[in-house]
UniProtKB/TrEMBL annotation:
One of its GO terms (biological process) is carbohydrate catabolic process. Keywords: Lyase, Schiff base. It comes from freshwater metagenome. GO terms for cellular component: cytoplasm. InterPro entries: Aldolase_TIM, DeoC, DeoC/FbaB/LacD_aldolase. Pathway: Carbohydrate degradation; 2-deoxy-D-ribose 1-phosphate degradation; D-glyceraldehyde 3-phosphate and acetaldehyde from 2-deoxy-alpha-D-ribose 1-phosphate: step 2/2. This is deoxyribose-phosphate aldolase. Its EC number is 4.1.2.4. CDD domains: DeoC (cd00959). It is an enzyme of class 4 (lyase). The keyword Nucleus does not apply. Belongs to the DeoC/FbaB aldolase family. DeoC type 2 subfamily.
Amino acid sequence: MPTISTQGVGWDLSDATRSDAALRRFLHGLPGVDQVGAEARAAALGTRSIKTTAKAQAIDLAIRMVDLTTLEGQDTPGKVRALASKAMRPDPTDPTCPATAAVCVYPDLVGVAKETLTDGGRRDSDVHIAAVATAFPSGRAALDIKLADTADAVEAGADEIDMVIDRGAFLAGRYLQVLEEIVAVREACTQGERSAHLKVIFETGELRTYDNVRRASWLAMMAGGHFIKTSTGKVQPAATLPVTMIMLEAVRDFREATGQMVGVKPAGGIRSTKDAIKYLVMVNEVAGPDWLDPDWFRFGASTLLNDLLMQRTKMRTGRYSGPDYVTLD
Protein backbone atom coordinates (compact mmCIF):
# COMPACT_ATOMS: atom_id res chain seq x y z
CA MET A 1 0.00 0.00 0.00
CA PRO A 2 1.20 3.56 -0.61
CA THR A 3 2.46 5.58 2.30
CA ILE A 4 0.32 8.69 2.80
CA SER A 5 2.03 11.42 4.77
CA THR A 6 -0.19 13.05 7.36
CA GLN A 7 2.41 15.08 9.22
CA GLY A 8 0.88 18.27 10.54
CA VAL A 9 -2.68 17.40 9.53
CA GLY A 10 -5.56 15.69 11.24
CA TRP A 11 -6.41 12.82 8.88
CA ASP A 12 -4.88 9.36 8.85
CA LEU A 13 -5.85 7.87 5.51
CA SER A 14 -3.68 4.78 5.82
CA ASP A 15 -6.36 2.96 7.83
CA ALA A 16 -8.82 3.39 4.95
CA THR A 17 -6.70 1.20 2.66
CA ARG A 18 -6.30 -1.75 5.02
CA SER A 19 -9.28 -3.66 3.66
CA ASP A 20 -11.97 -3.48 1.01
CA ALA A 21 -14.59 -2.83 3.68
CA ALA A 22 -12.57 0.00 5.23
CA LEU A 23 -11.98 1.60 1.86
CA ARG A 24 -15.65 1.34 0.97
CA ARG A 25 -16.65 2.94 4.26
CA PHE A 26 -14.24 5.80 3.67
CA LEU A 27 -15.25 6.48 0.06
CA HIS A 28 -18.96 6.25 0.75
CA GLY A 29 -18.49 8.45 3.80
CA LEU A 30 -17.25 11.35 1.68
CA PRO A 31 -19.72 14.25 1.46
CA GLY A 32 -22.28 13.71 -1.29
CA VAL A 33 -22.32 16.02 -4.31
CA ASP A 34 -25.34 18.25 -4.77
CA GLN A 35 -25.83 17.82 -8.53
CA VAL A 36 -27.94 20.95 -9.00
CA GLY A 37 -25.64 23.05 -6.85
CA ALA A 38 -22.48 21.76 -8.54
CA GLU A 39 -23.80 22.44 -12.01
CA ALA A 40 -25.02 25.89 -11.02
CA ARG A 41 -21.67 26.86 -9.52
CA ALA A 42 -19.74 25.54 -12.53
CA ALA A 43 -22.04 27.50 -14.85
CA ALA A 44 -21.53 30.66 -12.79
CA LEU A 45 -17.76 30.30 -12.86
CA GLY A 46 -17.99 29.80 -16.61
CA THR A 47 -19.44 33.30 -17.03
CA ARG A 48 -16.32 35.02 -15.68
CA SER A 49 -14.28 36.85 -18.30
CA ILE A 50 -10.81 38.32 -18.44
CA LYS A 51 -9.51 40.95 -20.82
CA THR A 52 -6.40 42.44 -22.45
CA THR A 53 -3.12 41.69 -20.64
CA ALA A 54 -4.66 39.08 -18.35
CA LYS A 55 -6.18 37.31 -21.36
CA ALA A 56 -2.83 37.28 -23.18
CA GLN A 57 -1.18 35.77 -20.11
CA ALA A 58 -3.97 33.20 -19.82
CA ILE A 59 -3.50 32.15 -23.45
CA ASP A 60 0.23 31.62 -22.99
CA LEU A 61 -0.42 29.70 -19.77
CA ALA A 62 -3.00 27.51 -21.51
CA ILE A 63 -0.50 26.74 -24.31
CA ARG A 64 2.06 25.70 -21.69
CA MET A 65 -0.56 23.40 -20.14
CA VAL A 66 -1.50 21.50 -23.31
CA ASP A 67 -0.70 17.81 -23.64
CA LEU A 68 -0.75 17.80 -27.46
CA THR A 69 -2.35 14.49 -28.23
CA THR A 70 -2.78 11.99 -31.03
CA LEU A 71 -4.35 8.67 -30.08
CA GLU A 72 -5.72 7.16 -33.27
CA GLY A 73 -5.27 3.73 -34.78
CA GLN A 74 -4.03 5.41 -37.94
CA ASP A 75 -1.20 7.29 -36.21
CA THR A 76 2.07 7.08 -38.12
CA PRO A 77 5.67 7.95 -37.20
CA GLY A 78 5.42 10.94 -39.54
CA LYS A 79 2.35 12.28 -37.74
CA VAL A 80 4.03 11.92 -34.35
CA ARG A 81 7.18 13.68 -35.60
CA ALA A 82 5.05 16.57 -36.86
CA LEU A 83 3.14 16.72 -33.59
CA ALA A 84 6.31 16.69 -31.47
CA SER A 85 7.81 19.45 -33.63
CA LYS A 86 4.66 21.50 -33.19
CA ALA A 87 4.74 20.91 -29.43
CA MET A 88 8.26 22.37 -29.27
CA ARG A 89 7.52 25.33 -31.56
CA PRO A 90 3.75 25.87 -31.78
CA ASP A 91 4.22 29.11 -33.78
CA PRO A 92 7.47 28.91 -35.77
CA THR A 93 7.07 32.56 -36.80
CA ASP A 94 7.07 33.80 -33.20
CA PRO A 95 9.94 32.71 -30.91
CA THR A 96 8.11 34.17 -27.89
CA CYS A 97 5.35 31.56 -28.19
CA PRO A 98 5.82 28.98 -25.40
CA ALA A 99 6.08 25.25 -25.97
CA THR A 100 3.35 22.88 -24.83
CA ALA A 101 3.70 20.79 -21.69
CA ALA A 102 3.85 17.42 -23.42
CA VAL A 103 3.09 15.36 -26.47
CA CYS A 104 0.86 12.35 -25.74
CA VAL A 105 1.03 9.20 -27.90
CA TYR A 106 0.61 5.44 -27.83
CA PRO A 107 3.48 3.51 -26.20
CA ASP A 108 4.83 2.10 -29.47
CA LEU A 109 5.39 5.65 -30.75
CA VAL A 110 7.21 6.98 -27.69
CA GLY A 111 10.55 6.31 -29.35
CA VAL A 112 9.56 8.41 -32.36
CA ALA A 113 8.56 11.32 -30.14
CA LYS A 114 11.78 11.00 -28.14
CA GLU A 115 13.87 11.02 -31.32
CA THR A 116 12.14 14.19 -32.51
CA LEU A 117 12.64 15.92 -29.16
CA THR A 118 16.30 14.87 -28.99
CA ASP A 119 19.27 16.58 -30.58
CA GLY A 120 22.67 14.93 -30.56
CA GLY A 121 21.69 12.43 -27.92
CA ARG A 122 20.35 15.08 -25.53
CA ARG A 123 16.77 16.16 -24.98
CA ASP A 124 16.60 19.51 -26.75
CA SER A 125 13.24 20.48 -25.32
CA ASP A 126 11.35 20.78 -22.06
CA VAL A 127 8.36 19.12 -23.74
CA HIS A 128 7.52 15.93 -21.88
CA ILE A 129 6.56 12.65 -23.51
CA ALA A 130 3.31 11.19 -22.20
CA ALA A 131 2.15 7.71 -23.15
CA VAL A 132 -1.23 6.13 -22.62
CA ALA A 133 -0.96 2.64 -21.16
CA THR A 134 -2.82 -0.16 -19.35
CA ALA A 135 -4.89 -1.25 -22.37
CA PHE A 136 -6.05 2.28 -23.20
CA PRO A 137 -8.88 3.20 -23.64
CA SER A 138 -10.89 0.25 -22.28
CA GLY A 139 -8.58 -0.92 -19.50
CA ARG A 140 -9.70 -4.47 -20.26
CA ALA A 141 -6.54 -6.55 -19.90
CA ALA A 142 -4.79 -8.70 -17.33
CA LEU A 143 -2.67 -6.83 -14.80
CA ASP A 144 0.60 -8.32 -16.03
CA ILE A 145 -0.14 -7.03 -19.53
CA LYS A 146 -0.93 -3.56 -18.15
CA LEU A 147 2.29 -3.50 -16.17
CA ALA A 148 4.34 -4.64 -19.15
CA ASP A 149 2.66 -1.96 -21.28
CA THR A 150 3.64 0.66 -18.71
CA ALA A 151 7.21 -0.60 -18.29
CA ASP A 152 7.78 -0.68 -22.05
CA ALA A 153 6.63 2.93 -22.41
CA VAL A 154 8.88 4.14 -19.58
CA GLU A 155 11.89 2.26 -20.94
CA ALA A 156 11.23 3.77 -24.38
CA GLY A 157 11.47 7.27 -22.90
CA ALA A 158 8.04 8.25 -21.55
CA ASP A 159 8.16 10.89 -18.83
CA GLU A 160 4.50 10.47 -17.94
CA ILE A 161 2.07 7.55 -18.06
CA ASP A 162 -1.66 8.08 -18.53
CA MET A 163 -3.36 4.93 -17.24
CA VAL A 164 -7.05 4.02 -17.27
CA ILE A 165 -8.78 2.51 -14.27
CA ASP A 166 -10.88 -0.63 -14.47
CA ARG A 167 -14.31 1.04 -14.56
CA GLY A 168 -16.07 -2.31 -14.29
CA ALA A 169 -14.32 -3.08 -11.02
CA PHE A 170 -14.96 0.44 -9.72
CA LEU A 171 -18.67 0.40 -10.56
CA ALA A 172 -18.99 -3.05 -8.98
CA GLY A 173 -17.58 -1.62 -5.76
CA ARG A 174 -14.26 -3.50 -5.89
CA TYR A 175 -12.41 -0.39 -4.78
CA LEU A 176 -9.41 -2.11 -3.21
CA GLN A 177 -8.75 -3.95 -6.49
CA VAL A 178 -8.71 -0.63 -8.34
CA LEU A 179 -6.45 0.98 -5.73
CA GLU A 180 -3.99 -1.92 -5.77
CA GLU A 181 -3.83 -1.80 -9.56
CA ILE A 182 -3.00 1.92 -9.49
CA VAL A 183 -0.29 1.24 -6.89
CA ALA A 184 1.17 -1.52 -9.09
CA VAL A 185 1.17 0.70 -12.18
CA ARG A 186 2.85 3.50 -10.26
CA GLU A 187 5.58 1.04 -9.23
CA ALA A 188 5.95 -0.01 -12.88
CA CYS A 189 6.53 3.66 -13.73
CA THR A 190 10.00 3.27 -12.22
CA GLN A 191 12.36 1.37 -14.50
CA GLY A 192 15.99 1.47 -13.41
CA GLU A 193 17.04 5.10 -13.22
CA ARG A 194 13.95 6.26 -15.10
CA SER A 195 10.78 7.28 -13.30
CA ALA A 196 7.59 8.57 -14.91
CA HIS A 197 4.76 10.51 -13.32
CA LEU A 198 1.39 8.74 -13.29
CA LYS A 199 -1.88 10.26 -14.47
CA VAL A 200 -4.98 8.24 -13.56
CA ILE A 201 -7.87 8.40 -16.05
CA PHE A 202 -11.39 7.81 -14.72
CA GLU A 203 -13.49 7.99 -17.91
CA THR A 204 -16.00 10.15 -16.08
CA GLY A 205 -18.61 9.67 -18.80
CA GLU A 206 -18.90 6.06 -17.62
CA LEU A 207 -18.89 6.76 -13.87
CA ARG A 208 -22.54 7.94 -14.04
CA THR A 209 -22.65 10.16 -10.95
CA TYR A 210 -20.73 13.07 -9.47
CA ASP A 211 -20.42 11.09 -6.23
CA ASN A 212 -18.51 8.44 -8.16
CA VAL A 213 -16.22 11.12 -9.62
CA ARG A 214 -15.41 12.30 -6.10
CA ARG A 215 -14.81 8.74 -4.90
CA ALA A 216 -12.59 7.92 -7.88
CA SER A 217 -10.59 11.11 -7.26
CA TRP A 218 -9.85 10.18 -3.67
CA LEU A 219 -9.14 6.56 -4.58
CA ALA A 220 -6.56 7.56 -7.19
CA MET A 221 -4.89 10.08 -4.89
CA MET A 222 -4.72 7.62 -2.01
CA ALA A 223 -3.08 5.14 -4.40
CA GLY A 224 -0.33 7.63 -5.24
CA GLY A 225 -1.42 9.06 -8.59
CA HIS A 226 0.42 12.26 -9.49
CA PHE A 227 -2.52 13.53 -11.60
CA ILE A 228 -6.19 12.69 -11.87
CA LYS A 229 -7.62 12.91 -15.38
CA THR A 230 -11.21 13.04 -16.57
CA SER A 231 -11.32 11.05 -19.76
CA THR A 232 -9.72 9.15 -22.61
CA GLY A 233 -11.44 11.37 -25.16
CA LYS A 234 -13.07 8.26 -26.62
CA VAL A 235 -16.30 8.37 -24.57
CA GLN A 236 -18.86 11.16 -24.36
CA PRO A 237 -19.38 13.15 -22.27
CA ALA A 238 -15.67 13.67 -21.70
CA ALA A 239 -14.34 16.70 -19.78
CA THR A 240 -17.04 19.01 -18.41
CA LEU A 241 -16.83 21.99 -16.10
CA PRO A 242 -18.87 20.38 -13.27
CA VAL A 243 -16.81 17.17 -13.32
CA THR A 244 -13.55 19.11 -13.36
CA MET A 245 -14.78 21.30 -10.51
CA ILE A 246 -15.47 18.22 -8.37
CA MET A 247 -11.97 16.91 -9.12
CA LEU A 248 -10.44 20.30 -8.25
CA GLU A 249 -12.33 20.28 -4.94
CA ALA A 250 -10.93 16.80 -4.29
CA VAL A 251 -7.29 17.78 -4.87
CA ARG A 252 -7.77 20.89 -2.74
CA ASP A 253 -9.24 18.83 0.12
CA PHE A 254 -6.61 16.13 -0.28
CA ARG A 255 -3.82 18.66 0.15
CA GLU A 256 -5.56 20.04 3.22
CA ALA A 257 -5.77 16.50 4.62
CA THR A 258 -2.30 15.22 3.71
CA GLY A 259 -0.13 18.15 2.69
CA GLN A 260 0.34 16.58 -0.77
CA MET A 261 -0.56 18.24 -4.08
CA VAL A 262 -2.04 16.25 -6.96
CA GLY A 263 -2.59 17.59 -10.47
CA VAL A 264 -5.78 17.64 -12.56
CA LYS A 265 -6.13 17.03 -16.29
CA PRO A 266 -9.43 17.52 -18.12
CA ALA A 267 -9.30 15.83 -21.51
CA GLY A 268 -11.67 15.51 -24.44
CA GLY A 269 -13.91 18.15 -25.99
CA ILE A 270 -11.97 21.28 -24.96
CA ARG A 271 -11.45 23.02 -28.29
CA SER A 272 -11.65 26.80 -27.88
CA THR A 273 -9.67 29.50 -26.10
CA LYS A 274 -12.89 30.63 -24.45
CA ASP A 275 -13.40 27.18 -22.95
CA ALA A 276 -9.76 26.92 -21.82
CA ILE A 277 -10.02 30.24 -19.99
CA LYS A 278 -13.19 29.05 -18.24
CA TYR A 279 -11.17 26.12 -16.88
CA LEU A 280 -8.33 28.39 -15.75
CA VAL A 281 -10.78 30.63 -13.89
CA MET A 282 -12.23 27.54 -12.23
CA VAL A 283 -8.78 26.29 -11.21
CA ASN A 284 -8.01 29.61 -9.53
CA GLU A 285 -11.40 29.89 -7.81
CA VAL A 286 -11.78 26.28 -6.64
CA ALA A 287 -8.31 24.82 -6.04
CA GLY A 288 -6.30 28.03 -5.84
CA PRO A 289 -3.48 29.75 -7.71
CA ASP A 290 -0.93 27.06 -6.80
CA TRP A 291 -2.56 24.85 -9.43
CA LEU A 292 -2.16 27.48 -12.18
CA ASP A 293 1.01 25.78 -13.38
CA PRO A 294 1.69 23.06 -15.97
CA ASP A 295 3.08 20.90 -13.19
CA TRP A 296 -0.39 20.78 -11.63
CA PHE A 297 -2.92 21.38 -14.39
CA ARG A 298 -3.02 20.13 -17.99
CA PHE A 299 -5.37 20.11 -20.94
CA GLY A 300 -5.57 16.87 -22.90
CA ALA A 301 -6.28 18.20 -26.39
CA SER A 302 -5.45 18.13 -30.07
CA THR A 303 -7.38 20.98 -31.69
CA LEU A 304 -7.34 23.39 -28.72
CA LEU A 305 -3.80 24.52 -29.51
CA ASN A 306 -4.85 25.74 -32.96
CA ASP A 307 -7.45 28.12 -31.54
CA LEU A 308 -5.09 29.32 -28.81
CA LEU A 309 -2.53 30.19 -31.48
CA MET A 310 -5.05 32.06 -33.62
CA GLN A 311 -6.33 34.05 -30.63
CA ARG A 312 -2.75 34.79 -29.59
CA THR A 313 -1.97 36.15 -33.05
CA LYS A 314 -5.13 38.26 -32.95
CA MET A 315 -4.05 39.85 -29.67
CA ARG A 316 -0.50 40.39 -30.93
CA THR A 317 -1.29 41.77 -34.39
CA GLY A 318 -4.86 43.04 -34.09
CA ARG A 319 -6.17 40.73 -36.78
CA TYR A 320 -7.08 37.10 -37.17
CA SER A 321 -4.75 34.94 -39.21
CA GLY A 322 -5.97 33.04 -42.22
CA PRO A 323 -7.32 29.51 -41.81
CA ASP A 324 -4.04 28.07 -43.11
CA TYR A 325 -1.93 29.87 -40.50
CA VAL A 326 -1.80 26.91 -38.14
CA THR A 327 -1.50 23.22 -38.92
CA LEU A 328 -4.63 21.13 -38.50
CA ASP A 329 -4.30 18.18 -36.13
